[in-house]
Amino acid sequence: MGKILRIDLSKEKITNESLDLGVATEFIGGMGLGMYYLYRDLKPKIDPLGPENELVFVTGPLTGTLAPSSGQTCLVTKSPMTSTCLDTYMGGYFGPEIKFAGYDAIIVSGKSEKPVYIVIDSENVEIRKAEHIWGKTTSETEKIIKEEVGNDFRVACIGPAGENLVKFACIVSERRTLGRGGSGAVMGSKKLKAIAVRGSKSIRIYDEDSFLKAVEKAFNLIKEALEKDFRVKGLAIVGSAFGVLWIRSAGVLPTRNFSTGYFEDAEKISGEEMLEKGVYRRHIACYNCPIHCGKVSVVTSGKYAGTIIDGPEYETIGLIGSNCGISEISAVIKANYLCDEFGMDTISTGNVVGFAMECFERGILTLEDTGGIELRFGNGDAIVEIIEKIAKREGLGDILAEGVKRASEKIGKGSEAFAIQVKGMEFPSWEPRGLRGSGLAYATSHRGACHKRGIMGDELVSKSGLVTEGKAMLVKKRQDEVAVYFSLVVCRFATFVVPMSLWAEMLTAVTGFSYDENKLMMIGDRIETLTRVFNVREGFTRKDDYLPRRFYEEPAVSGPTKGIVFPREEYEKMLDEFYELRGWDKEGIPTKEKLKELGLTEFFAL
Length: 606
What we know:
The chain is an alpha+beta fold. Helices cover 42% and strands 13% of the residues. The two termini are 33 Å apart. The relative contact order is 0.12.
């Protein structure tokens, strides 16, 4: 669209700037463009919850077009969880609406003295008072704002967790979430309750005929995969929860705070069980997506009867379910609902509660500490109770709201040994003892432990989880690929079956600039290296690229990976190889030669 919208809440200043096409061709959009602005605009070592931080809501060149699964929204900021750069994504319709309003990105800086929300109606942009909705849940907030501005606006907002600066608070739009890393806390620190967007502009396509031909090829590949590829077919029928039993069978389903990878009651929280028992009621899809992986679920009986959510997705089931030893799907759904309403990342929530449960089981935390909650593995009611305390920062919830790394440092008594995090970011729902390549991906990801850059599917399908040879190359390749996809900005599920060469065709047709697979992979390398330059500037080095001690020293206690650890010496070799492949030195710092090769010398301020 050629335009960036900047909003400074401290000065109540709204300005437009032209998109630099030279920068856009080198960083594409989404993650790449967002990281470019973040590095350029932010001074080193700023407080992520200070007014200097930015919220960069950024689209990609395919956003809002007919390209499949092009409804994702990318947000880039400095994370209050990790102090690293952060990129986080959600599906739905918010991103396309930004594009229809005429913008490639919305960059929010500064801090309002009182609660506000932003209304963007194409060229008409205003900052409105929000004292009357401060304290409301996300669904209440969306309802009130739509009543005030119009039902055809798309709203992204925070709940009480963001207002209370819970470090893993998220941003919610129509039950989709910018989930990881605490973007909701950044928004709350700015006293920004919500952004409402409406647009009516059309998106210009450089070569419409070529674009439509490439789009048709992509949709045909997805259609074929819906019939033949078990992953895509599973997503369409059962949602991402189809993976629960498959992943358990490999011994890599996190269970009881990652003490093992096998949950004996996984059937009770599987997507297949929810489908059979009528918990799933209908399918839903994001903008222009034929896979419709979203599922609306309803609790039909028991104390949580009537609870309705979009989900639960695999990551939520794995962390709130098996990782907390909970086999009652109604409790998982209720916990998911509360996280959505309060605005909290379900992955981090499941981790921090699983950690607290282990502390309680070991006697490190007592009933006095928990406010009388029996915070034991398997207690579904306990997780429902503690979630509200975390969101409101009450009692133990105030400590857990800081995330598992800071919570373990405050609780002490040896609990740091089983705080499952990298760089302060809690683990996703894949056990690295049996997925060594994905363990390397967790440890080296710029935003902390991250499943979106992992190679879990490759390792599971090939049954090569315990193999280390060649994994460093595969991890680098996957990270570079994902950087491209998240810059386009498209859903990872569509990229399972649509090859990068075809995305390059679509990108070329849309923009008029020539791309092929090799050029895109080089851009992916450039973007990933820029994230490393950002993090090195913040003080991160090799010392921060390790898994928790549990995985190197404590064998899994049950299932197919029983007795297995991830040998530290094997990991060190993988890390050395990964750095060499990336063109980084032994401390994980990009060399001047690598920066020159990627055209990043202007960013060399390490």
